[in-house]
Amino acid sequence: MSGNTFGKIFKITELDRRKPGQSDITTQRKEDDAVEILSGVFEGKTLGTPIGMIIYNKDQKSKDYSNIKDVFRPNHADITYQAKYGHRDYRGGGRASARETANWVAAGAIAKKILKNEGVSVNGFVSEIGKVKADSINHKNINNKYFFSDESKLSELDSMFKDLIEEGNSVGAKLGVIVKNCPVGLGDPVFEKLDANLAKAIMTINAVKSVSIGNADDLLSLKGSEARDEITESGFTSNNSGGILGGISNGDDISLSFIIKPTSSIKTKGKTVNKEGNEVDIEVTGRHDPCVGIRAVPIAEAMVSLVLVDHLLINKAQCADVEQNLPFSE
Amino acid sequence: MSGNTFGKIFKITELDRRKPGQSDITTQRKEDDAVEILSGVFEGKTLGTPIGMIIYNKDQKSKDYSNIKDVFRPNHADITYQAKYGHRDYRGGGRASARETANWVAAGAIAKKILKNEGVSVNGFVSEIGKVKADSINHKNINNKYFFSDESKLSELDSMFKDLIEEGNSVGAKLGVIVKNCPVGLGDPVFEKLDANLAKAIMTINAVKSVSIGNADDLLSLKGSEARDEITESGFTSNNSGGILGGISNGDDISLSFIIKPTSSIKTKGKTVNKEGNEVDIEVTGRHDPCVGIRAVPIAEAMVSLVLVDHLLINKAQCADVEQNLPFSE
Amino acid sequence: MSGNTFGKIFKITELDRRKPGQSDITTQRKEDDAVEILSGVFEGKTLGTPIGMIIYNKDQKSKDYSNIKDVFRPNHADITYQAKYGHRDYRGGGRASARETANWVAAGAIAKKILKNEGVSVNGFVSEIGKVKADSINHKNINNKYFFSDESKLSELDSMFKDLIEEGNSVGAKLGVIVKNCPVGLGDPVFEKLDANLAKAIMTINAVKSVSIGNADDLLSLKGSEARDEITESGFTSNNSGGILGGISNGDDISLSFIIKPTSSIKTKGKTVNKEGNEVDIEVTGRHDPCVGIRAVPIAEAMVSLVLVDHLLINKAQCADVEQNLPFSE
Amino acid sequence: MSGNTFGKIFKITELDRRKPGQSDITTQRKEDDAVEILSGVFEGKTLGTPIGMIIYNKDQKSKDYSNIKDVFRPNHADITYQAKYGHRDYRGGGRASARETANWVAAGAIAKKILKNEGVSVNGFVSEIGKVKADSINHKNINNKYFFSDESKLSELDSMFKDLIEEGNSVGAKLGVIVKNCPVGLGDPVFEKLDANLAKAIMTINAVKSVSIGNADDLLSLKGSEARDEITESGFTSNNSGGILGGISNGDDISLSFIIKPTSSIKTKGKTVNKEGNEVDIEVTGRHDPCVGIRAVPIAEAMVSLVLVDHLLINKAQCADVEQNLPFSE
To answer: Cβ separation of B48 and C89 shorter than 8 Å?
Structure first.
């Protein structure tokens, strides 16, 4: 009966990239982040039935939440959960906790395996942190603690984070994801456009406030004759469209970017109200990331991978009998 | 039997705002854009069953499409539809035609009626066209042909459009939508966040490449202590979050913005390939809007309204028994 | 540009089998039942986008509904629609009208074409009408006005219907559908079992009160050793399971049966109440089928075909890379 | 922080009714069937977010499945899972195991709590086992090991089961569920009829081959004038329709019945094939229920309860503003 995965504990590399406690600029909460596969895999292969996975919170039970129990942290879901449901789990923000994203990364790790089989790669990176902006984009083999795409800015970032930690403050970030070798034909003309579903998935990530496909930043300064990606026998001459036309992948690189707001849980004292509506000062203690955006790299890769795999399977249902080719010479 | 709406032809004001042929800067195609209600309404009231509506294309049959029949217009869905399905309707771009959006505006007109009953207003506007940027935002009673939120820039726009038409070129635009008086509690914590669904709906609009919730443009220059919307007894002190916290509306104004690429169908000659993969020059004749973004104002209002009504009904299913209040004094 | 189907009017053979006014035992309402294809088909082929179709009611406008306007016909949806929505379209029963099923038959005609391409046939028949029971099942080439599977009983049926029409009364019926050559592998283990979806589809047909898969009638008199379909090298030795095991098609004939209640709209006077709750006598005038079950044959074939095509496409998404074979010698 | 349910182990009474090993006529496999709530409940109340629950298989690991590893048990999902996916978990039948239904019963226990709050009761019972038929229906407080609705037949059943166990054989069963005090208005006119969804849910239960709403058994012998449920000032005069008209609950008792095939896993030797397609004899050892139908009573109650709660919530979204009344005097 060897080879069975039920009940075994796995370490998923992707989870290690997401998890806190990895450096001085991310939360010091120690989470083991090992995933247990409960169902759907047998003798090393998927069964076709749903794959159930569980990641236990090992480090949570003993915490003291009395300071935030009856108080709404500014720019958090505390106040909306309470208003919507009349009841909330104040410990760690309940479902609004960044802990939730560990699930997505675990599921995304499976999606990435499927995509790898099809030759598709999905790579994320950070291109701006606060006012520090990358001059060049490197979307592969990023091996620095900021996932920053321009290594020439690392010491500038070190210095900025030193100040932020001292100050008890935080900054926002801009991130990107690039998909290489995506097959043509993923997405639908009206109701399930690939870009619409990518936008939904990215906007689902905690603290994301903006998402763009392709070269959106330049579309107000370019004219139509410059922005349209002309076509030659060997392919598109540019990729302002970010690899998607009319909601459907065009075989070119899919590129997207998104903006994450500054961490709201900071040591700097701020104004808020409690459940009774009385004003109180709040100062969120404990260690928090001065920039939550950094840890969003593996999360965004997971979300993009999940959307792509969904569309890959849907495209098989729709067009299994069509040879999906572009009219380009190799 | 008077009062029955079946088979009656209606003029929907919203459709008039969207339709082409209204000024010298929008397409001169004459469409009547009258909607016929087929089902779901009886004696002036909805029946609870689906409302079927139809808008016939009166002006379409006699067109000559031979010039685009076998050629892929750059930055259009022509090439992706052909690659995905191996077959496409080249006339007017098929389902990728902006004509598709008339349906959404018709459906959105009903959604807006429901929202109006609840006291909610949804207003769109244009804030940037090409390099011309509004200095002030007015989101109500905009009565200029550009739906532009800053009337001091109208003559600058006139002059820009005169040049664009002469040149046979086009520009992109940035638009905004503001929702006033949205009830607290719309949206879900994880799978159907309100902002995620708004992003999907807006990104579904033809030519949209970027969507932001709240004050995303400033999130890279603000620190956490500045960006978090603090709370007092009378409400939030700012609204960088755009009225949504943790995927759920917080009762403040919902604000979003989005960027539309420059019209791809322009008179300026460009390179493309035909179905056989041979390079050809293309020049899209006929009148086309030099900025498709302008007509997107009623479309975006419709999409936002449809998302809000969906969530309004879902929220009734979820929380009909909860008094959904914020802890603010009036 | 000939060959385009938009706006053309089609006669669908399946609709002729369903429509009323065909013999002395079905309603004399004359409906043309021609379908107009609005979208999704171009130059004789589907486009991959949704196929819109419309069937207009030609014969409906002038009717007088004053006798049923404020009265609830017994065993009809009149009373539940009114109670649920507080408002209803009393003309012809609104969406509860058997007219609704014309849509399903039109959609099912397309599903049948897809199935035919895969070599799958779907044939319905009537096996019991009131107390007259077929001694033999013929599920192909049934060419009698009752769609009855045993032609030796036709004169008995003629005589029964003569009496029913004189009496102004009605009877129920039992019908069957047999699917030949269904591929193995359609259906899911838990959430979308093929038999569960067939049961839902059949129970959706107006007046159906019972649905069975395979040889359900005998399962209380057979023991496990008799009822289990044993397996040999050349296939299953019997087919009590009706071609589905564990929610998934096993390649054998799919057989199902269902019971339709007697027509509720009959001339025989009955008791009911009006909107004010006062008791009134009701006698539904006009011609009504003395057995609505007969016309359900093409409707059931359509519903079964739609479910099968859905599962065929889903199975491609799930298992496109699996060779789905049974271990039988040919 | 007392009162928190996370990580606590619960005993659900409903699970005890379903679980095996309770008497000499049900499987002797010992399962603890305690459920652990993982999420969605806090301080004794639901949070509005999904409720995650887990039931571990305590008794499974050490079993020897070598005899069924490469052989397809007749009338089981073994052969269809293998054909569909090319890979299967042979241990206990994988997702086809009756163990799967423990999940549904756990979820149904929550649904039943919600229904109880609304005054709705859901009670199941067995009315036929093999050739033994109940003469009277008692759907409450059934306290015998067969859940049999007619206690006068218990000794007859004892004797039948004694013989079946000796013989190593099995029989089928007919069961019923009655819902009392269901609110009027649940269900949709076309796409999500209440009876259609009940049929799907019941047909999803392992081994169910037939499902009926109301008095389906008599609909072939009754005429329309007898079968229609006439209406008086105090309500319906009969309930052949089983509490549902036009897909919507009418406020009367909802009654349904269904047939479960004889247990396929029996000691009596039978013919089958192995993965290579070679014929082998099979004899399923271990203890198996001689009638799996008996344990389906709590499962069916759970499935019906889940469907009703879904429709209850949907009805709030649809008709929160309608006073849903029937025109009857009290």
So the answer is: no
> A8 to chain D, minimum CA–CA distance in Å?
13
DSSP C128: E
Residues from chain B contacting residue C84 (CB–CB below 8 Å): 48
Distance from C-alpha of A167 to C-alpha of D270, rounded to nearest angstrom: 78
- Residue showing tokens 């087919």: C239
Contacts (Cβ under 8 Å, ≥6 apart) of A286: none
**Considering only CA atoms, which of C122, C156, C97 is closest in space to residue C292?**
C97
Question: Over the stretch D261-301, which tens digit does the pLDDT of each residue have?
Answer: 999 999 999 999 999 999 999 988 776 789 999 999 999 99
B95 touches chain C (CB under 8 A): yes
Minimum-distance CB partner of C316 among A48, A189, A316: A316
Residue C137 has pLDDT above 60, yes or no: yes
Q: What is the 3-state secondary structure (H, E, C) of A27-47?
A: CCCCCCCEEEEEECEECCEEC
What H or E segment, with its residue span, contains residue D174? strand D173-180
Q: Which two tokens stand for residue B294?
A: 């302008």
- The strand ranges marked E within chain B are 9-11, 34-39, 41-42, 45-46, 52-54, 121-129, 132-133, 173-180, 208-213, 231-232, 235-236, 244-245, 248-249, 254-260, 270-273, 279-282
pLDDT at residue C191 above 70? Answer: yes
CA distance D92 to chain A (A): 13
pLDDT confidence of residue C2: 32
Residues of chain B with pLDDT under 70: 1-13, 19-32, 59-63, 287, 330
From the DSSP assignment, how many helices (H) and strands (E) are in chain C?
7, 16
**Could you give the CA distance from residue A174 to residue A189 in angstroms, rounded to a whole number?**
29
Q: Do A171 and B324 touch (CB under 8 A)?
A: no
**Nearest alpha-carbon partner for D170 in D209, D201, D129:** D129
Subunit contact A211:B210, Cβ cutoff 8 A: yes
Predicted local confidence at residue B330, as pLDDT:
67
A88 at D interface, C-beta within 8 A: yes
The 10s digit of each residue's pLDDT in A94-122 is: 899 989 999 999 999 999 999 999 999 99
Burial, D92: exposed, middle or buried (Cβ in 10 Å; 0-12, 13-18, 19+)?
middle
pLDDT tops 50 at residue A7? no
Q: Which of D172, D195, D274 sits opposite C219 (nearest CB)?
A: D172
pLDDT at D23 over 80: no
D170 Cα to chain B: minimum distance (Å): 45
Residues 6+ apart with CB under 8 A from D68: D78, D90, D282, D284
Residue A203: name the closest of A304, A127, A123, A110 by CA: A304
Q: Contact C225/D268, CB-based, under 8 Å?
A: yes
Single pTM value for the model: 0.94
What pLDDT, in 10s, does the model give residues A138-155?
Answer: 888 898 999 999 999 999
ipTM of the complex: 0.94
Alpha helices in chain A (DSSP H): 13-18, 78-85, 100-117, 154-167, 194-204, 224-227, 296-319
